[in-house]
Amino acid sequence: MPCKYEVAARELERIVEEGKYSFNPLVALDNRRRLILPTMYEHELSGATVIVRISLTCDAFKKGLQFYAEIESINVICPPKLLVSLPPSASPSRKRKRDLASLLATELNKKRRSGFDGDDDECPPVA
Questions:
Q1: What is the pLDDT of residues 74-124, one digit of tens each?
Q2: 80 touches 47 (CB < 8 A)
Q3: Contact of 78 with 123, CB cutoff 8 Å
């Protein structure tokens, strides 16, 4: 069961041991219809354009209606764009600006060698 933070992992382990939680991974597919493993959810889904299929249930009580939404599946239609992180700076120097441009050019060249056509606005086809 993936957890980003150690404190969350410990707490999750505790409630699993107490029998209060059972792990049911989401059905998440990438844009090539391959299953995304729970350990890769954040990497593959953060910033992606997706279609989420849900089931919506409604129960009527004396005090009113209660709605429940359950995620049935997630399908990536456009993967996240390449993000480059730089250390924070109050005012980037000209050298840092050139370094960023150089870094972006290097990453784009890597993508082109791997079959990326360079058009950021176009998502790969869903087959």
A1: 999 999 876 556 666 666 555 555 566 666 667 666 656 666 544 445 565
A2: yes
A3: yes
* CA dist., res. 85 & res. 62, Å (int): 52
Contacts of residue 82, Cβ cutoff 8 Å, sequence gap at least 6: 107, 111
Dihedrals phi, psi of 29, to nearest 5 degrees: -120, 140
Instruction: Decide the pairing of beta strands 49-61 and 28-29.
Output: unpaired
Round to whole Å and give the CA distance between 49 and 70: 19
Q: pTM to 2 decimals?
A: 0.54
* List of long-range contacts for 16-24, beta carbons under 8 Å, 24+ apart: none
